[in-house]
Every structure is written in C-alpha cells, then in structure tokens.
Design goal:
Helix content: 40-55%
Transmembrane segments: 56-79, 118-139
Shape: rod-shaped
Organism: Hasllibacter halocynthiae
Structural class: alpha/beta
Domain Methyltransferase: 196-291
Pfam families: Methyltransf_25
Oligomer: single chain
CATH topology of the largest domain: Rossmann fold
GO molecular function: methyltransferase activity
Number of domains: 2
Strand content: 5-15%
Order of helices and strands: HHHHHHHHEHEHEHEHEHEE
Radius of gyration: 34 Å
Length: 354
C-alpha cells in the first residue's frame, strides 16, 4: 500500500479548502444578485397593497414601515455579503495568485464595489421613499392613525375619500340603487313636478335623475369635497346645491321651503343617536302635507372612525311614534358593494293620520 506523504496531505487539504471557498464564494455571489429581485418584489408588493387599502390608513402605515424596514435590512445584508465575499477573494488570491483574476478597474464604471454601491443606492432610495410615503400617510390620516377622533368623523372621512367614493357612487344608477324609491313615487304622487330635497346628496347622482325628469331638486351635502365633485358632474342650474347638515339643516329651514319628497340615502347611520330626534323634527318641519320621506337604514356593525352608528327599524319606529310620524318598510336588499355583514332597509316616513 502506497504511503501518503505530508506534502500530498497538505496539497489535498489546500485543494479541499480552495474548493470549499470557491463554492462558498459562488453561493454568496448568487445571493447578492438575488437581493435586487427580493427588494423589487418586496417593495412592489407592499406599495401595491398600500394602494388597495386606502380606506385603512393604519394598515397603509404598517405596510410602508415593512417596506422601509425590509429595504433597510437588505442594505445591511448586502454590506455583510460583500464583506465576506471579499475575504474569500483575498484568500483565493493569496492561495493561488497565478489563477486569480482581480479585475481592479480604473474607470468609474469598472471600479471595485461598483455593483454593491449601485445595489445599496437603490435599496436606500426605496427605503427613503417608503419612509416619505409613511410620514405623508400618517400625517394626512393622523386622526385615525394616532387614535384621535375628529369632531365630525363622518365629514372628515368624506372629505378625505371623496374621489374614490364618487367613483363608486357614479357606477350605479338610481334605478339600481333605489328601486323602492321609484315605487314610492309612482304610488304616492300624481304625475307632475315634485319639490325634492336630497339630504346627503353626495355626488348628486340621484339629484341629477330628478332634475332630468323635470322635478325641482335641492341637493344638500355637508362635505365640500363631495359637493365640488357633484357640481362638476351635475352642475347648476338643474340642481340647486347647498352646504347644510343634519340635525338642524339651518340654511334649508331658513329658506322657508317645504318639499313633497325628502331623501336620505345612506345618511341616517351618520346621524349621532343623541341628534336623531332633532333630525326627525327638522325633516318633518320641511315636509309638505301628504309628503313622504324616503330613508335607508344600514343594518350592520358600527364604524366609529367613519362616523357610522348602529341603526334599526325598531329604534326608528319608536322615535317616529313620539313625533306622530309613521314608517313603512319598502324594501330590503343586500349590500351592493358585496359586504356580507351589511344589508339595507328602505323605509317611507309620513305624518300620521289624525
């Protein structure tokens, strides 16, 4: 049996160490080149998530924080990877100088660490942009993010989300959203123009239907942002816009007008429970003899951040009875936005017969 000399043993050990370091370097190099892909996937996915949850600013802030933290972590990781790779390169150069390719360029585009520096610049830029977006989101939605409840959360919500809400409203027609309203009009009013008050008119979608059908329509909307969009989409003089709000409707009451039909679509849940009796008194005072109030009830959970309070048919009927008003159920339908925990009940309200 041939004996192994110390020189051969040392040679084999050097060869094994060389192979191991070479393989480790290749693995580290592959990992470094994967970092930009990880960063793009991480940042793109989280930023897309932010764009899809605009109604939940606290969640947006959390996603942007993850994007900033993730890119910051990758920035540090690439530093560590390149440091370890350099140690392997130095060892390989010292071990086998003749076979080592240093590739130490002299121009700006081929100098050592150029690729690492470019990667780090992009990672740092993504982290900084995420932080800027985080700060901007937190500032614009600071009431909800920091748990500060605005004086009128419903109005604040509509002011901040007017554009996206308007897009949703305008995709539906009045016929689709309120079939019971058309039934109420056909059954209780003769042919001829009506004096109509739309309280919480939003973008004026419903008000424009009444104007197009020859009725006199006053659109009341407390949100300046929503009213601005409404005036652009459905301009005067067909619609008379007013910035007024429940429970008092001070400007409308001061005008001395009364109406055949008053509409409250997706409004009653925004009226604070303590203000509802006054709101009903106000509405009754604006109603002509024989007039009707069309009101929709959102049956579902409360959402304090959006100024949404619980409502029910029973509570409404009890309050109406105290004011000598009566209510009738017109219709019930599922939520048109597909929310399974919410349904809508359409009610008609009128003065009780003596």
């Amino acid at each position: 049996m041939k004996s192994v000399t110390p020189e051969e043993i040392e040679h084999e050990m050097h060869k094994a160490a060389f192979d191991q370091n070479h393989a480790s370097f290749r693995s580290l190099n592959q990992q470094m080149w994967q970092i930009p892909l990880i960063s793009m996937t991480l940042t793109g996915g989280l930023w897309f998530g932010v764009s899809r949850v605009e109604d939940f600013p606290l969640f947006q802030v959390a996603l942007l924080f993850l994007a900033a933290a993730g890119n910051g972590a990758l920035f540090v990781i690439i530093l560590r990877l390149r440091f370890v790779m350099q140690q392997h390169l130095d060892w390989l150069e010292n071990t086998y100088p003749a076979g080592h390719v240093s590739a130490k360029g002299t121009q700006w585009y081929n100098k050592p660490f150029l690729v690492r520096s470019l990667f780090q610049f992009m990672l740092g830029l993504a982290a900084i942009l995420s932080l800027i977006l985080l700060i901007a989101t937190a500032w614009t939605s600071r009431e909800e993010v920091f748990g500060i409840m605005p004086q009128d959360p419903a109005l604040t919500y509509y002011e901040q989300h007017a554009a996206s809400l308007a897009d949703g409203y305008e995709t539906l027609s009045l016929e689709t959203a309120h079939p019971a309203l058309l039934t109420l009009i056909n059954e209780h009013f003769e042919d001829g123009p009506l004096a109509v008050l739309d309280v919480g008119a939003g973008t004026g979608r419903d008000a424009s239907w009444f104007a197009a059908n020859g009725h006199r329509i006053v659109a009341v909307e407390p949100s300046e942002a929503m009213q601005t969009i409404g005036r652009r989409l459905h301009p005067p003089p067909e619609i008379e816009w007013r910035q007024d709000s429940l429970p008092g409707l001070a400007e409308t009451r001061a005008s001395g007008e009364t109406f055949d039909l008053i509409i409250l679509s997706a409004v009653w849940m925004h009226v604070k429970p303590d203000d509802r009796e006054q709101a009903l008194e106000t509405l009754a005072s604006l109603l002509k003899p024989g007039g009707q109030i069309y009101l929709t009830l959102r049956i579902g959970p409360s959402e304090p951040a959006r100024g949404i309070y619980r409502v029910s048919e029973e509570a409404l009927k009890d309050q109406l009875a105290e004011l000598s008003l009566k209510a009738g159920k017109l219709d019930e339908q599922a939520d048109l936005l597909g929310r399974s925990n919410i349904r809508w009940v359409a009610m008609s309200i009128s003065a009780s017969e003596s």
